[in-house]
Design brief:
Layout lengths: L6 H41 L5 H34 L6 E5 L10 E7 L5 E8 L4 E8 L10 H18 L1
Antiparallel strand pairs: 1-2, 2-3, 3-4
Pfam family, one: DUF4446
Organism: Alicyclobacillus cycloheptanicus
Keywords: Coiled coil, Membrane, Transmembrane, Transmembrane helix
Length: 168
Amino acid sequence: MFASIQPYETTIILAAGVVALIALILAVSGLIGQRILKRRFKKWRTIHATADLEAVYAQTLEAVEELRSEFETLQSEVQRMRKQLRHKVSTPQVMRYNAFAEQGSDLSFSIALVDDEENGVVISSIYGREESRTYAKPIKGAVSTYPLTAEEQAVLSHVAVTEERSND
C-alpha cells in the first residue's frame, strides 16, 4: 500500500501533517486565550454590574475628588493643630535646690512652664523653716519683666536645651 506512494506525495503528506499540528496548537492557544479573556471580563463585571466602563470611570473620578477634598480638609486641620500646639506647654522642667545653706535638704524648687515660642511662666517655691513662699514670674520670649534668680534662669535655659534636642 505504501509502496505505491511517490516521493512528492510523501512530502505533501508530511507538510499537511505539520500544518495540521500547527493548526491544533493555534486552536489550543486560542481556547486558552479565550478563557483568560472570559476571566478578565468577569472581573470587570464585578466592578460594576453592567460593566459600563464609562460609569466606572466616572465613579472613580468622583471618589478621587472626594478623597482630594477630604485630604485638603485634613491638611488644614493639621495646620490649625500645629498652630495650637506651638502655644501649649512643651517640656516642663523642675529644679530642686537648697535655698538656704543652714537647712539640709533640697525642698525649694523652680519649675518652668513655657511653650515653643518660650512664653509662659516660671514658678518658684522657696522653703524656709519659719515660712515658705511661692512666686510666679511671667515669661515672654524667654525673658521676664521680673528679675530671675540663678535657679530660675537655669531651669528656663534647661527647657530651651531640651527643646533643641527634641527638635533634632
